[in-house]
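Purpose: get a first structural picture of the assembly so the mutagenesis plan has something to point at.
Setup: two entries, given in the order below. No constraints added.
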Amino acid sequence: MFQKILAWLDERMGLTTIYHTVLDRKVPKVNWFFTLGSASLFLFLIQGITGIMLTVYYVPSPDHAYDSIQYIMNEVSFGWLIRGIHHWSASLMVLVVFLHMLRTFFYAAYKYPREFTWVTGVLLLLLTLGMGFTGYLLPWNQKAYWATTVGTSIAGAVPLIGPFINQVLRGGTELSAVTLARFFSVHIWWLPAAIAAIIGTHLYMVIRLGISAVPDKED
Amino acid sequence: MPGYQHMSRRDFVQVVTAFLGTIMGAVIGLPAIGYLLSPALKGQKSDAWIPLGPLDNYPPDVPTPFSFTRSQVNGWEKTVNSYGGFIVRNGDEVLALSNICTHLSCRVVWKTEQALYICPCHDAAFFKDGTVASGPPPHPLEAYETKVEEGVLYVRFVEG
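Result (structure tokens, whole complex):
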């Protein structure tokens, strides 16, 4: 029965072709450092799922942000677990994406014909940091508030257009409800959408070009 | 053991993968379901006698409106809900009708000239004692349990 449905879908969707193209690729003899990309993708998916779960209860308003998180942590069943996973995977994702970048750099895997894969990867690293920056404000506690005050001030140190950037980030001269709302919006819509799209490009490039081998003495 | 000879390595791996996969799915899935459903499953129980002032404030024969508020903590917010209805006195009998229409929970009002409770939403009408006069409601208006102690009227508020 199940086999039949699968065969029916396969005939129309070409599932086996996708499967072979994506998972049965020929790869050179590589080591564990080559799993960091998959680990990054996995962490992104974890963040997406737990993040969606958190939006069920979180309220991006100064009146309720802190209280709604207290509610998630203390009242909702397994709320501590969902938020805990989101919290720790966030730090882990920054780390793993960074290590993935280091591996690519030290194995010189960014060279022809993979320059554009590298460019998309750098964008993904920057967007991941953006996720960390915007997500940090959302608990709306002292640490979040002052970290964002400092962070936006750093952006404000840019010559000439600094104050403008600072105000755009904050949605005004001071940190406020507007700041929290736009950080939330950027955190759950703008950045994840951009990251998902660029991951698509990044993976397409990896599948199209294959991965480079570990460089040896001759390289 | 003949059974073992029929199990190939591939079959074994499949069975073990399915088994471990099911356990992992349950470990991840059940908390997720609990997380989403938990507020719905937490019943908020309430049972209290609410004083509505001296019984003499409610004239006999004419339905007189009453109201009271109850506060409730919902998630991260405390909400004050107001409840109300009509006190109908008939001799010694004191009836405390809820003003929530039994059709779709709009609030009914007493119209003296028609001598009916009228619901503004779908034109439902109830008689003075709460029974359905006309319109869509499936049953009469709900009544609060009442008691009178030292001349003060109480209604019993039960929820959950």
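Chain A has a mean pLDDT of 95.
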